[in-house]
Amino acid sequence: MREGMSRRRVLGIGGALGLVAATGLSTAAALARRPSMTGAVLRSAVPLPPPFQAPLPIPAVLEPVGDGRYEITQREAVAEILPGLKTPLWTYEGTFPGPTIESRRGRPITVTHRNELPVPTVVHLHGGRTPASSDGYPTDLVLPHGHTASHAMHDPRAVVTTLTRDYTFPLDQRPALLWYHDHRMDFTAPAIWRGLAGLHVVRDDDEDDLGLPAGDRELPLMICDRAFAADGGLAYPALDPALRERPGVHAAYLGGVLGDVILVNGAPWPVHEVDAARYRLRVLNASNARHYELAAVTDDGRPVPLVQIGADQGLLAAPVPHHRLPIAPAERYDVVIDFSQVRPGERVRLINHLGADRTRDVMAFHVTRRAPDDSRVPDVLSTDLPTWRRSEATTVRDFSFRAGHTPHGRGWVIGGLPFDPTRTDVATTLGATEVWRLIADVHHPVHLHLVGFRVLSRGGRPPLPHDAGLKDTVSLRPGEAVEIITRFDGYRGRYLFHCHNAEHEDMGMMANLEIT
Amino acid sequence: MRRPSEWVFRGVVSAHVVAAVGQPVFAGVYLTGDFDGLRWHAVGADVVTSIGLLQLVAAIAVWARLRRAWPFLTTSAVVVAETAQYFAGLNGALWLHVPLGVMTIAALVVQFIAVWRNPLARTENGHA
Fold it and tell me: What keywords were assigned to this record (chain A) (predicted)?
């Protein structure tokens, strides 16, 4: 049979299919989020202030009430975050962020939390090597006065207290920037959003002796995004605005809640006056769902390198310079920035390459004067990083983090299952070394309680430069797989691992880790 | 067999379709949480891309021996698409990777039908 079609028809069909393909691909290019982003932006209903006006607040350091004893009252407070607006918050000690706890390696502390909020609370020290009884399991509620426990999810192992609870932290761990935040079952995301987060620093003599920038030249930077309602309050798309019974957010925000105001230490797009010297920035992304890719640039566009010296769980072996530093929710980076090449009077902006419009700006440093600088960044920062090898692993586990169904409707699941406090998802023994292979459908920053881990591979290839060191949260991007290795040591008991997109976490994306 | 270049081309196109159909299979397995699926998907990408280049060589032979240009032109388009597909996958650009993958397979299926439906060689009495 000869070809049944004329040349004209073949060209016509080919042209039509080509047009369909071109239209399809350009539609994908136009509709897709590039860079990709998981979550939906909640827009503020109030005018937003210009950037780089508010001074950078430094959270107060909490004074102990006795040897190794601290007290924190969780209470409602009102703060002026945006100029001229009163914003009601849930706070630790009346401030957002809460007061910073300064502690020393191996010196245990006890923090007595008193709940004067209208809802139950749970405190978790993120990154802490903490016995299970003080790790803030989501059902280990501290009930407010007069509140009767009527929690939807029944957990026979829950240890519920009324009004107060003592959390004991042995702090037998590498020096690092940790953070404490609310971890209540089903309502973690709105509780953090309303202000329940604070910093906790662990230090030791070895780190002090390195000669890193210190004192006024060490700045904690808790970065988070928020949105403001017309009355000045924080907007949040909760299904239950009282945050008592029905968990979850409106369907549009299933992927996570992103604000349009960037706060650093609770101030919108702040500015900080600095000397033309090295500074140590201890950066935490305390956002519920927003990822950032941080870069420092002068006003005339020159990049200023961010030299990473530490990860979630403390110092790296050696410094790693970055021009762009991606940071997912709950991740921390310890970086040194050198302003000595910046002329006094110039500004260095910290920008976010994943942002759009106002969320592209984070904060600014205003270099005011030349000053002596005896700090240094040693070539060797630490020699105590674990050297776990694949061959030591006794178990390899695969977990998929993806969208799925939960008892509350659509949500997020690990290995196909939504969180259930009564189900043991992983049972392991104290001292076991394991390789975990994590796979994501969209962005999932995966966090393990109790232990730090090292990243073995990302997308089947070697880890990226910012995966260095010991981590407790690893950022999976859409379709990405990461292999991590860890050793479950420290304490026996029931712990968690979960996605630290706080909305995903509330909507099922947690699992139990039982160490026996 | 009087037209070996035609039969080689048909064989390579057929192998190309089979290998390409494996790619969404491995991707689907991977996204259920099976880590090995990613390795199969990566190996598959190398295999599909290699077959694509073989097909280009076979298409050049068809053009030279049988004076037919369309196999070369369409194969070139497929090879360009597969190259873009390879790097889109490596870079995690899923907005491009997913639709381009579907379209590449559609193009291969059309090619498969075209090479098997009619002889590639010109008939004695002129051109189509």
Answer: Capsid protein, Metal-binding, Oxidoreductase, Virion
